[in-house]
Amino acid sequence: MTPSEIAALMREITETDEIGVDDDFFHAGGKSWEALSLMVILAERSGVKLSLLDVFHTRTPSRLADLIAHRSVTER
């Protein structure tokens, strides 16, 4: 997934237009239960296993995209 796709998903989940590719999900208003939704949707769409801690530690769309790309290579 691209950072732009992840940012769009974050905006959809949080119902805000304020999240760009380098914005922190939680600083933009994301809540813990929304992080859980984000984790599940990202895993479903990317096919990469993610944990809730991944979302808490990798808070921006850019960093999440990097993590997903890295895991998609290493999980093969």
> Which percent band covers the strand fraction?
under 5%
> How does the overall form come out from the CA principal axes?
globular
Number of separate strands: 0
Share in helix: 55-70%
Q: Give the helix tally.
A: 4
Oligomer: single chain
The biggest sheet amounts to: none
Task: List the uncertain runs.
Answer: none
Structural class call reads mainly alpha
Radius of gyration: 11 Å
N-end to C-end Cα span: 16 Å
Helix and strand element order: HHHH
Mean pLDDT: 94
How do you describe this structure in short?
It is built from 4 helices and no strands. It is mainly α. The model has no long low-confidence stretch (mean pLDDT 94).
Give the SSE layout.
Elements: H1 3-14, H2 32-46, H3 52-57, H4 61-74
Q: What report would you give on this structure?
A:
This protein is mainly alpha-helical and 76 residues long. The chain is built from four helices and no strands. It has helices spanning 3-14, 32-46, 52-57, 61-74. Helix 1 crosses helix 4. The longest helix has 15 residues, at 32-46. The chain is globular.
Which key features would you list for this structure?
mainly alpha, single chain
